[in-house]
Amino acid sequence: MIRSEILREIAPILRDQLVICNIGLPSQELHMIDDQPTNFYMLGTMGLSSSIGLGVALAQDKTVISIDGDGSVLTNFGTLPTIANNVADNYILLIIDNGSYGSTGDQPTYAGRKTSLAAVAKACGCENVVECQAEETPKVLQDAIDSKKMTIIVAKCESGNVKVPVITKDPVVIRDRFMKAVAS
Amino acid sequence: MSINKRIVDDLVANDISFVTTVPCKQLAGVIDEVEAREEIFHIPSNKEDEGMGLCAGAWMGGKRPAIIMQNTAIGVTINTLATLIQFYRMPLPMLISYRGELREPVACQVEMAVHTKALLNQLNIPTYHFHRESDATELDAILKYTFMCNKPVAILTDASFWGGYGDQ
Ligand SMILES: [Mg+2]
Question: Is residue B71 part of a domain?
Fold first, then answer.
């Protein structure tokens, strides 16, 4: 399974939740599969999906899922200690780990070689860390939502992309409808 | 009343309840005051762009944020300021220690000081420079302005403002 297939599988679960989606292809794929006002698409700023999601989770009570990638977590590694030390039980970080920088041409990341993001998250102090295979992602994600415990999920999948259009929505529109969904 | 307390009073009076910080010696007192206040959730960041992500999220979640950091962080956060805070039009007060100005003991700090205002200017970020303690009387108006226009706004606070570095 590749990332877009995971997103297709979990779209029915994401539909009712606040979602912060990583820059590039992940946002474009989620936007194509199931665009929702509860989705905040990152159009720039690689690496900050987990930070933005934690901020939303700490500011209000609804469940927030940050969808991130292995490459993006590597670029903002400082996020994991911050998450571990500021527990928000309405927060889930879903790292879709395909071992490559998918949006830029599938160059391999260190997470696809020796570095285990799940082990790093645990070492940083995150208490509920689940590594799973791509096929298990829907169940693991639903369990994490139901547990009402802050959870870091590392979903291992194959690298590869599908053809997908860029997002042409105005960023202020994306942000405004997301904020209205948060407040509703 | 101490300047640290007055600054944080202004944050609280403007309903700022989510503050992220990356430390600087000059800011130690104000960071302590942020940590001590019940009205404020204080979340230290490991890097300033991470902190801006947290602030963006907190604002979308319904809280007014602020970031406290050193001016060297402008070099770290240009992409985040342009493609997150400005592109999505979000308010972000940035209380910045302006290292490398008069009374600075560390030469390397001057290297970023000479770029600080030029970079903020290039980014069209409204910028205020606190040099004397009385300049802080404008903080309340600056915060109101920030949340009126939904922009990042820089408040540079130099060593003279903080009373220098003490005996050197
Ligand atoms: Mg990847």
Answer: yes
Within 8 A of B61 by CB-CB distance, chain A residues are: 55-60, 64, 182
Distance A28 CA to ligand 1 centre (A): 14
Judge whether B168 lies within some domain.
Answer: no
Name the β-bridge partners of A96.
A69, A155
Which residues form the domain of B100?
3-159
The CATH number assigned to the domain holding B122 equals: 3.40.50.970
pLDDT in tens, B88-121: 999 999 999 999 999 999 999 999 999 999 999 9
How many structural domains compose chain A?
Answer: 1
- Complete DSSP assignment for B20-52: EE---GGGHHHHHHHHH-TT-EEEE-SSHHHHH
pTM above 0.90, yes or no: yes
For residue B44, what are the CA distances in angstroms to A19, A23, A133, B16, B78? 24, 24, 33, 16, 20
Cβ within 8 Å, pair A171-B90: no
ipTM of the complex model = 0.98
